[in-house]
Specification:
- The complex is a heterodimer of chains A (332) and B (341).
- Helices cover 78% and strands 0% of the residues of chain A.
- Chain A is built from 13 helices and no strands.
- In chain A, helix 12 runs antiparallel to helix 13.
- The radius of gyration of chain A is 24 Å and the shape is globular.
- The termini of chain A are close together.
- With 341 residues, chain B is an alpha/beta fold.
- Chain B has a nine-stranded mixed β-sheet with strand order 6-7-8-3-9-10-12-11-13, with helices on both faces. A four-stranded antiparallel β-sheet of chain B has the order 2-1-4-5, covered by helices on one side.
- In chain B, helix 9 links the parallel strand 7 and strand 8.
- The chains are: A mainly alpha (332), B alpha/beta (341).
- Chains A and B meet through helix 10 and helix 11 of A and helix 3 of B.
Chain lengths: 332, 341
């Protein structure tokens, strides 16, 4: 336990440079863009020069880059910076949208685990059959097909043609516990809101998870095959263990590498969320960032990057802890 | 040798053929192998790497890994006075025999244990799945006693250790304790010492011998090491390229080896019973079994090979009371039999 504590502290310290690095890169990319954000914020070509001058002063736009970076970061972290275009506090705005993106990612993750792992096991057990070929094709299509195309096709088929699902908007339950609509609905037993959320998120979630399902299935297939062909599984059979127990030995060993990849996929899903949210009209963090890019709204962009980076490092930490729990050879 | 007649057989392998159906072709791994293991003895299968020793041992519970298949032959198991043909049993019946009545110890103890479970759990599950203990709690208790029996120090603590926390010798002891956990009728030890240091090898062999004496086990020992054969066994079968070429009691084999291959094997190691000037190796390597040599499979490496050896498969000849050899050199010097003991 003392080991775990020391590990957590050590890892938390490494968070800081990671997050500074990620936000700094985003900031510098935004900084070097040859555009005049102050004028864009003030209303474009016809902007009043006085307003532009005020904005430049307010947002330190004429200061060196490190002063600007410090100003933005401090403003975001203390929630004191106000959006130049829409007059709301940037961090509050992003934090309000974060649960939606998180909910979308949870749906995608759900498909990743519930479809990816069983498909992988089945294709390992039925190696070189139709189902195995199906998973192989799925994995290949998944990584090749762009999310936006897939999203529009799904909307066309399931919304327009079949009318099975609902798109756009997020219904909130009356109770506010975690801020994530579907979890709050579940916790307060608000089944109508729960069902409405499922209807709206099932398709975007599946779209977002589509590529990952194939990847996870292939990975599970390979690591499961490796496990069932290992000496300890053969020896387990030679000891006359029951089939179910032999299977559990193979499964647990096969899942060790899968945990890492699922963790990384989770970060990747957050990265894919902007496109999915834009296609399906989900008012999450990702869509806000896409709009921010169009508006040259740098504070929102950097706040979004900061949150995404934070989630990514936290996910990695959780993966490392899980890893040590399932594999006793891993030490903190 | 009058006691020989009264010995009760435990396993009788009759005219066994095992083929591996690979992409490159059919590997005729085992052809026409017969032998008997008597209750209470230590029977040895000896031969070079790749000659089929391990495959033979796995046919005894019909657990030959794919693409291998038993093509022909019988494995008769004398189960409480009843004769059972292992080849004919269902998978579930076989599962009940494996690890309970016929238990294995395999070569590489590091690979044999699941790295994610404590050794106590793995010993206990062997008993739980065969119903010899009622639950894991009792299983762990028994595991502690078993670890003590295989001379693992501090068994109460070690039962909760993961495989990677134990040394190679200790892991092999854990594997042995698994083999013994259900008090099997036959223990098959497949090269139990080849992955261990020489000093640990001696300890493990001593342990096996002691346990055998204490529990009245029957042991099938598989090895390529003539030293181990001399130390452990009562009867020996010499396997070459999937054929048994000679079967004899251990003293007889070391004193009067008949088959040119056995003679070669014994020249390659220091012989405890006779003095030899210098160690010699057998020229050549084990043949490819997709297209095994015609006639006697040993003829390309045999110093006495004749035209007949190249053309015709030699018969099995009984040259002594329990001494059988499959070689044309002894044609007419004993009685031709269809199978050895």
């Amino acid at each position: 336990m003392a080991d775990l504590k020391r590990f957590l502290v050590r890892r938390a310290v490494t968070f800081i440079p990671t997050i500074i690095g990620v936000t700094l890169i985003t900031f510098i990319i935004a900084f070097v863009i040859p555009a005049n954000p102050a004028r864009a914020w003030a209303g474009g070509i016809k902007a009043d020069p006085h307003v532009v001058a005020t904005i430049v002063k307010e947002y330190h736009l004429n200061d060196p880059w490190y002063v600007q970076y410090y100003f933005f970061m401090k403003g975001i972290l203390t929630n004191s910076i106000v959006d130049p275009l829409f007059n709301y506090k940037v961090m509050s705005y992003m934090l309000a949208r974060f649960p939606i993106t998180f909910q979308l990612t949870l749906f995608a993750l759900f498909f990743l685990i519930v479809l990816g792992i069983p498909l992988g096991i089945i294709s390992a057990l039925k190696k070189d059959t139709v189902i195995d070929a199906f998973v192989r094709v799925w994995a290949l299509t998944g990584v090749s097909v762009p999310i936006f195309w897939l999203g529009y096709i799904f909307i066309y088929v399931f919304f327009y043609m079949l009318g099975w699902i609902t798109v756009a908007g997020v219904p909130y339950p009356k109770v506010h516990i975690t801020g994530i609509p579907i979890i709050d609905a579940l916790l307060s037993g608000d089944w109508t809101t729960f069902a409405e959320n499922i209807k709206r998120f099932i398709l975007p979630g599946f779209t977002l998870g589509f590529a990952g399902i194939g990847i996870i299935a292939r990975l599970v297939r390979n690591s499961f095959l490796e496990a069932i062909n290992s000496d300890y599984i053969y020896f387990a059979k030679m000891r006359g263990l029951r089939n179910r127990r032999v299977f559990m030995h193979a499964l647990r060993n096969a899942l060790v590498p899968v945990v890492t990849v699922v963790g990384l996929q989770f970060g990747g899903l957050l990265g894919g969320a902007p496109i999915t949210e834009t296609v399906f009209g989900i008012p999450g963090m990702g869509r806000a960032m896409v709009q921010a890019i169009f508006n040259m709204d740098f504070p929102v962009l950097i706040a979004g990057t900061l949150l995404a980076a934070l989630i990514f490092v936290i996910t990695n930490l959780v993966v490392d802890i899980l890893y040590a729990i399932i594999d006793p050879r891993v030490r903190f | 040798m009058s006691s020989e007649a009264r010995r009760e057989p435990l396993i009788e392998v009759e005219n066994l053929y095992v083929y591996f159906y690979t992409y490159a072709g059919v590997v005729k791994a085992i052809e026409d192998v017969s032998f008997t293991i008597y209750k209470g003895e230590t029977f040895c299968l000896v031969g070079e790497t790749g000659c089929g020793k391990t495959v033979v041992s796995r046919t005894l519970t019909n657990i030959v890994p794919p693409p291998g298949r038993i093509v022909k032959g019988k494995v008769i198991y004398h189960r409480d006075g009843e004769e059972v043909n292992i080849i004919k049993l269902s998978e579930e019946e076989l599962r009940n025999i494996r690890g309970k009545e016929i238990a294995y110890i395999i070569q590489d103890p590091s690979a044999a244990l699941d790295p994610l479970y404590v050794v106590g759990y793995q010993i206990a599950e062997t008993m739980v799945d065969h119903g010899t203990v009622k639950d894991f709690k009792e299983g762990f208790g028994r595991a502690v006693r078993l670890l003590k029996e295989v001379l693992i120090p501090d068994p109460e603590r070690r039962v909760k250790a993961y495989p990677h926390e134990l040394s190679g010798g200790m892991r092999q002891r854990v594997v042995i304790s698994m083999g013994l956990s259900n008090e099997p009728k036959l223990l098959i030890a497949d090269e139990p010492t080849s992955y261990l240091d020489v000093t640990v090898q001696a300890q493990v062999l001593d342990l096996l011998r002691e346990l055998k004496g204490k529990k009245g086990l029957t042991v099938l020992l598989i090895t390529h090491d003539m030293g181990v054969v001399a130390e452990m066994c009562e009867r020996v079968a010499v396997l070459y390229a999937g054929n048994i070429v000679e079967v004899a009691p251990v003293d007889e084999l070391f004193k009067r080896p008949k088959h040119p291959y056995t003679v070669g094997l014994l020249r390659a190691v220091p012989n405890p019973l006779t003095e030899i000037e210098k160690l010699e190796s057998i020229p050549g390597t084990v043949p490819n079994l997709i297209k095994p040599p015609s006639g006697c499979r040993f003829h390309p490496r045999c110093p006495h090979a004749t035209e007949k050896c190249r053309r015709e498969k030699p018969p099995l000849i009984r040259v002594g009371p329990s001494h059988y050899v499959r070689c044309w050199l002894y044609a007419g010097k004993g009685e031709e039999v269809s199978r050895s003991e």
